[in-house]
């Protein structure tokens, strides 16, 4: 992907459009199933990465993408069917081959934090299935974004297992 093809770098924390807990996400205990949290983080996070220039368009054009190698999920509040949601994503750390992102799932009505997921991803060549460095312009952009996001306060009570921040 050429520099000209890279979208403007959004420095704000990315947020999803409105979401809602679907009835089919509810488990035997009457609340959102724990696996659905991770699935939602994955689906929505993947879409938000497009705005950082490393989403589906990047992968199709370069045959490179992000492989998740570690996650840390923290469930903070129970969610029930019909609850409005919002997902936010920020980049905590970036180097030549790795990204650490923090995703925050909050209630859409009162902003209460329901869950967080930190994710360590590596940049991989989809042909060789090996970890490779980002192209320098991409790495520079991601590092700059991580510098901005990394300076922001973490959610109250959050302890980063992947970066060591509290």
UniProtKB/TrEMBL annotation:
Q: Which Gene3D superfamilies does the entry mention?
A: Hotdog Thioesterase (3.10.129.10)
Query: What sections of the protein cross the membrane?
Result: none
Q: Name one Pfam family in it.
A: 4HBT_2
SUPFAM superfamilies with a match to the protein in the record = Thioesterase/thiol ester dehydrase-isomerase
Cross-referenced InterPro entries, in alphabetical order?
4-hydroxybenzoyl-CoA_TE (IPR050563), HotDog_dom_sf (IPR029069)
Identification of the protein by name? Thioesterase family protein
Q: Which organism is it from?
A: Azospirillum endophyticum
The organism's lineage is: Bacteria, Pseudomonadati, Pseudomonadota, Alphaproteobacteria, Rhodospirillales
